[in-house]
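We treat protein structure as text, and this decision shapes the records that our systems exchange. We quote a single record here, exactly as it is kept in our systems:
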Amino acid sequence: MAEKVHHDHREPSLSSDDPTTAHYDNEKHINDQPHIAGVHQDSSLVASKAEEDAVFRKLDWHLLPFVFILYSLSVLDRSNLGNARLAGLEERINLTGWRYNWLGTIFYIAYILFQWLLMGWKRFPAHIYCAIAVFGWGVIATVQAGVTGWGSLMACRFLLGIFEAMFGPGVPLYLSFFYPRDKVGFRHGVFISGAAMANAYGGALAYGISQIKSSHIEPWQILFIIEGLPTCCIAFVAFYVLPDSLSKAKFLSDREKQIAAAAIARNQVADPDRATGFQYKHVLAALKDPKSYIPGVMYFSCNVSFASLPLFVPTIISQMGAFTKIQSNGLSAPPYVLCFFMILLLTWLSDRFNKRAPFIIFASLVAAIGFIMQATCTGVVPRYVGVFLSVQVFCCVALTLAWVSNIHSTESKRAGGMTVLATLGQFGPLLGTNVFPASEKPFYRKGMWISAAFCLLITFCSALLATILIFQNRKMEKSGVIPRKGEAQDGLRDRGADGVPKYRYIW
């Protein structure tokens, strides 16, 4: 029989039946649980762990596939430039010198300037905000097929950056509205894995499109149209599918909503009705918190190493000397397929063991080895293997996003923390898109060494942040703010200067 979990007790709450992965949270009395509009508050609520897990599986099936598809389309529409380049775009609009690099750079300039738009996920109804963002970038992505010169394509890339800044950076914040801190890592992994899958099927799709012969429209134009129009259509689906909050999730019963809200509130501040609105003081607290900035440096480093890869991997493979341009588009897919499965595996393990740093360190070291192989080897096989390893740096992105959600315990503070993360992080592509100049081919050694160095910086920052969080946990234990592991909970409600309850940090 399943173990019963009563949300009114003071005993340690286990996140798993396996004692090696158990962690203890600050339990709240049922009267402290968030009220859900239109739902009868059952003071005698008793739910088994199996029932609680079933509620989150139901959320998974309704939320994750859709945000996965949306993000894969987002990444596809921003990164298909690399495939279009090999499909004839370079010759059509004369992408000589640094012109191609600037097409990548201008996108990220807009992406950085408009990172603050992610707060719209907390400020406005999610289904409306998301639909506008998706439709906007879908239209711009499709319009790229009609450009006649470098200037018009630059304008399209800038506008594309604005609409995508509304979407991608805010989804991790959105998911944190629906899941407890110890379950959000894998969900972020599913979301982020959409990028890896987009780069995988994007390469395969580009290979197929390159085979299309037409006297009226060029392959690169067909590529932009075929990959842009579906995004415009799915925006209307987003309007009707995405729930704004836990209380408005029509696919959950009243009991399921209360079970989910109680689970979310165990180790963070839940707001199932979005009733608290946008708390500027919590955003300010996140901006003042030094712990907000180390993940930003990590994300910056991830993006230096990874953001340039979708734009340059097909070119890097074509410069190995053994493949045609069309074959290089197809061969750019398998490394991202491996990355897709690695993201899911590492984020699942991270939630299972309730740790972030060890898995980020592992992925960053694997990626560093891959870049070093490409920088030092001249043979086709080791260089291609190096591509498989180097793209694993993207696993660090999913784990870092989950870590930021764990550091901040309110939705508004997470919005502030995510804004710091995204703003600092998106400066990375400004460097990353310019470390593989044409003058460095065929080996691009400078770019490979730079990318390897930033992978090692991710390793260092992860170890540093973990050390800080372990120290702060022990400090809070000694002062009685949180119980020591293994001790019974006593309903502690200590709050920091920002008025936010104190919880054990996940490192």
About this structure: The radius of gyration is 23 Å.
